[in-house]
Amino acid sequence: HVQLLPPQNVTLLSKDFAMILTWDPGEGSPPDVKYTVRYERQDRLNKWMKVPHCKNIPRTFCNLTCDLSSFFVQVRARVKAVWGGFQSPWVQSQCKDYYSDVELAPPVLILNVQENFIHVSASFPLPTCVENFTWKYDLYLWEAGSEDKKKYEGLFRKDTVTISTIALRGNYCFSARALFENTNSTHSEFSQPMCVLLNHKG
């Protein structure tokens, strides 16, 4: 008689613009155990929706973002272990709501340095299904070693900032954070500074 123990530490994470269910294998799980995930919305309780790409999977996470039928309703997910003809009990996660709980990753800055200008744009690691939300970013520019930062705030995701470099001499740094104007105005950490030498003679 085989008893398949259920997955442990089942957690619904909102991370880097995505909603992901993670778990650990149950104690003593066979190495080739598989997992199946479902989710339910708080406005349709006890109607567990299938997640086709997370049925009988070997990995211990499932990205639910683009399966959610609404981003404005709390959801919770559940997972069970499957092995041969055996199944473990389902284990449920806590509830989360993409719109208010989303965690943002810092944008990646793209710098295009030309003779008298620098063009700065931001790239976001977005799941395709949330590209239409109003993502923004704040851009900071400062001379290396200085505390005095020039701020370009509330830029739309696809905006490019063009900065004249004629008056800038030396090592200048750029950093940005992602913004999402939801119920609590969420923002990411600032990206690692990217620094460039401008009008450097020699």
TrEMBL record:
One of its GO terms (molecular function) is cytokine receptor activity. SUPFAM superfamilies: Fibronectin type III. Residues 6-101 form the Fibronectin type-III domain. GO terms for cellular component: plasma membrane. This is INLR1 protein. It comes from Vireo altiloquus (Black-whiskered vireo). The lineage of its organism: Eukaryota, Metazoa, Chordata, Craniata, Vertebrata. The gene is Ifnlr1.
